[in-house]
Each structure stands twice: as C-alpha cells, then as structure tokens.
Automatic annotation (TrEMBL):
Its main location: membrane. This is glucan endo-1,3-beta-D-glucosidase. InterPro entries: GH, Glyco_hydro_17, Glyco_hydro_17_plant, X8. Residues 1-28 form the signal peptide. Belongs to the glycosyl hydrolase 17 family. One of its GO terms (biological process) is carbohydrate metabolic process.
Length: 508
C-alpha cells in the first residue's frame, strides 16, 4: 500500500470514528454519577428552598430522599435535578399487601409531581432484609405493586424501582469470587433479582468501608479503606481470579456481582445508594476524623467519575450517592452518627473536598484555598522526621525556614513542619495522600500565613473558608463548574482529540 493510500484510509477511519462518537454523545446517555442523600434529622433543618439552593451552588444533579416530602419535591421542580424518592420502612407492609395502597402512594408522591420534578427512581424501603425482616415476605410484592402503578401511568420507562440492601447480606465477601448472599434469603433474593432483570432496574447497595474497617480489628488497613494508593505488595489479591484490589469499595461491589452470578444473574447493574465516612467520633472511633472523611469522599467521587470501574468490571463505574448532605445533629446513637454530612445546617462545609480535577460535581472547593499543616499534638520527633524528609527527598525548597528568613519565626518544629508540609502539598497539586506524612499532618481551610511568611496556595492574607454556598459559583456563573462542556466533557475531549488527528492526517 502506498503512503498516500495509507493516509487516505487513516482519514476515512478517523472520520467514521468521529461520526460514531458524535452520535453517542448526541444520544444523551449519562455515565456514572455522584449524588447525595438528604437526611432531615437536624434540630434546625434548612427549608426546602434553602436545600435546593445549596444543591444548585454545589452543582449536585442527583439526590436521594428518604421519603417523598411534598414541599421538598415542589422545591426541586424545574431544576432538572434527578430525584430518587423512597417508601419509608413503616409504610412498606401496607404497600406490599395492597395494590390499591401502592397505586395511591404513586399517585400522591410521584405522579402529582411529574413532569416538573425529575423523579427517576423509587427506593422501596431501606435494608429490609436486615433491618425489618418481618416485612421481607412482602418486599417483592411491594416492588411489583409500585411498578404496576408506574406502568398504569406510563412512567415505567422513566422511573426505576428497586430496594437498597446492607452489604452485610453478602457473606464471605473476600475473596469476592467466593461471595454469596445469606442463603436464608435466597427465595426472596431470586424473586427480587428476576424483578430487577425484567424491569431493567439496578441492584441498590449500601457500601460503608468505614464499618468494614472498624469491624476488621486491624485486618483491613486504613489506607485500603480510604482509597489511598497502595504498593503492589499491599494490594489484596483474589486467589481464584488473581484480580488485585486496591480498596474496600471495589471489593464489596465485586462481591455483590459474584453473589448475583452465584444465583445465575449476571447482567444487573449496581447503584450504591449510600457510602461515606464520618468526620467526628467518640473515643472508640479514633478514625472518624475530618481528614479521613475528606480523603474518603474526595477519592470516592474521583473514583466514580473517572470510570475506572472495578477489577471484575473495569471501565464500568458504579453510580454512588454520598451519605450525606448535612450533619444530622438530632440523630441518636454514637457521636459519629451525627457527623456524616458534607455541610452543617447553615450550608457551611464541614471540610473542603479536594476535587480540583473532577469539574462536574461539588463546588465547595472552588476557592482552592486548602492547606496542609502539622496536626495538633503530633509527636515532635515524628514531625522532625517528616520535616527532614520534605526538605530532603521530598524536594521542598525550605530556604525560607533558615534563620533571618521570613518563615523562620516562630522557631519550632511544628511551625517549620507546617510550612514544609504545605509547600509539598501545593507542589503535588493537593493530590490525595500528599498531606499525610505518617499521620502527623492534616488539611485545613484556615490560611496559616503570618506576617511576611506567605504560604503557597493563599491570596496573601489570613482567611477562613466561611460559607461554601456563597463562595461557590452561581448557576449563571461562567466558571468551569457551570460550563456547557462540563456535562459532556468526555465528548468534547473526544471531538478535540479526533479533530486534531484528522488535521494531522490531512497534513500528512
């Protein structure tokens, strides 16, 4: 084949590829997404209008409600936000025993709000098999009755029906290839999976690596639970499939896939309806910290949106709802139960998510003003060792810490370590794990600059991130968060890349 023929064939192939990609982009099919759960156990619950305002400024396009609150659904109208409504557990028995009751529930809580409110799913109950086992016999009936009501209203193609499960229904979850559902529930599970398969609905799962880590008594490393990078020799390997697992989340998802395949169901997608990490706990929960919550949720969001998928299904990401939008101070139980939220009741972020590369959800890091500082009470010897590493192998320029320079005072290891830690953190573009230093560093939104010692990443003045909702871009902002290319960034990148290839071929 001549050089000219080769170029001509390349041009034709690239043109065909471009047409296929543009066609796929035009179809409007959405890939994996990240949403949030909206709990309401707050002593000072924001109004529905305030909640929706926060969702808009944070660019959150998917929410799950634990009920079908009329005022909340009305506030969500005409926003385009996709909504999963829920049948509360205390209503499940009635709906599962009466087609008419289910039809009335759908008419009142779904049909009445369509098309203004973009309801896309109904979650029937929550963790019924483990939390309310006496209702388990009517669970599939409830799903069928809700589905029948949607069919009667011609909404079944738009709204999917499923029920969320605790991951504890999966036994022997590692290695994933040996996982299976608690066999006492097999008769109900088979019926449920047949329903999901026939309606094209997802298997809903709640995945909490925090609890897996806490209950493992040290067997599960913290880094493995938090999505932190692991050396190859620390990865968990499934001895049957030889698949390598770098985080708990993926291992649980794949365990669910294998458990379904054990019952001969292999084509049902998974949606994680709850996942997160608490930012505060009591003395028995030392790893419920702001830093760990930030690390987990930031890494989780990035993991879902970059379409990595799982070892069993690479490239197939699992849409996930973070638990949760607000800290619920009125919840009972351990201190951690009140502290899973991304925001407090006033819309102030509990921590600033490190998501500078995601560009598609959550704008509470748009100030880009986060800093890495020495942790209060850290061991001075460990701080000194970390400081020596940062200024040595870490290649941080610590010249301003020398005597007579602007950051020499105060002359103590904590202050000097804070400067070096932050410089390394900023140098690494705030990458996950770059503010750890064997546990003696932590993230803060308070600018540690002082006097003439200006820390990198600051605007030159001491400042605190005060209100995520006011500093985030508005819906009319021209920032990247609301750019027309944000929700089709994959297609836009493809167009530019393929266009460049075509141009190169034409030049040839």
């Amino acid at each position: 084949m001549s050089f000219e023929s080769l170029v001509e064939n390349l041009q034709m192939a690239l043109l065909v590829l471009l047409m296929l990609l543009l066609s796929a982009a035009a179809s409007g099919e959405e890939g994996a997404f990240v949403g949030v759960n909206i709990g309401t156990d707050l002593s000072d619950m924001p109004s529905p209008t305030q909640v929706v305002a926060l969702l808009k400024t944070q660019n959150i396009r998917h929410v799950r409600l634990y009920d079908a609150d009329r005022a909340m659904l009305q506030a969500l109208a005409n926003t385009g936000i996709q909504v999963t409504v829920s049948v509360p557990n205390d209503q499940l028995l009635g709906i599962g025993q009466s087609n008419a009751t289910a039809a009335n529930w759908v008419a009142r809580n779904v049909v009445a709000h369509i098309p203004g409110t973009n309801i896309t799913a109904v979650a029937v109950g929550s963790e019924i098999l483990t939390a309310l086992p006496n209702a388990a016999p009517v669970l599939v009936s409830a799903l069928r009755f809700i589905q029948s009501a949607l069919v009667a209203s011609n909404l079944d193609s738009k709204i999917k029906v499923s029920t969320p499960h605790s991951s504890s229904i999966i036994l022997d979850s590692f290695p994933p290839s040996q996982a299976f559902f608690n066999r006492s529930w097999d008769p109900i599970m088979v019926q449920l999976l047949k329903f999901l398969q026939s309606t094209g609905s997802p298997f809903m799962l709640n995945v909490y690596p925090y609890y897996d880590y806490m209950q493992s008594n040290g067997v599960i490393p913290l880094d493995y639970a938090l999505f932190r990078p692991l050396p190859p020799n620390k990865e968990a390997v499934d001895s049957n499939t030889l698949l390598h697992y770098t985080n708990v989340f993926d291992a649980v998802i794949d365990a669910a896939y294998f458990a379904m395949s054990y019952l001969n169901f292999t084509n049902i997608p998974i949606v994680v309806l709850e996942s997160g990490w608490p930012s505060k706990g009591d003395s028995s929960e030392p790893d419920a910290t702001v830093e760990n919550a930030n690390t987990y949720n930031s890494n989780l969001i990035r993991h879902v949106l970059n379409n990595t998928g799982t070892p069993k299904h690479p490239g197939t990401s699992v849409s996930t709802y973070i638990y949760e939008l607000y800290n619920e101070d009125a919840r009972s139980g351990a201190l951690s139960e009140k502290n899973w939220g991304l925001f407090d009741a006033n819309g102030v972020p509990v921590y600033v998510l490190r998501l500078t590369d995601s560009g598609t959800v959550f704008a509470n890091d748009t100030t880009n003003q986060t800093y890495c500082v020495a942790r209060d009470g850290a061991d001075p010897k460990m701080l000194q060792a970390a400081l020596d590493w940062a200024c040595g192998p870490g290649r941080v320029n610590c010249s301003l810490l020398l005597q007579g320079k602007s950051c020499y005072e105060p002359d103590n290891v904590a202050a000097h370590a804070t400067y070096a830690f932050n410089l390394y953190y900023q140098m690494m573009n705030k990458a996950p794990g770059s503010c750890f230093f064997n546990g003696v560093a932590t993230i803060t939104t308070t600018n540690p600059s002082h006097g003439t010692c200006i820390f990198p990443g600051s605007n030159g003045v001491n400042s605190t991130f005060i209100n995520g909702t006011s500093l985030a871009p508005s819906q009319n902002s021209s920032s990247a968060a609301s750019s027309p290319y944000v929700h089709n960034d994959g297609a836009w990148t493809i167009m530019v890349t393929v266009g460049a290839l075509l141009l190169a071929a034409a030049i040839l």
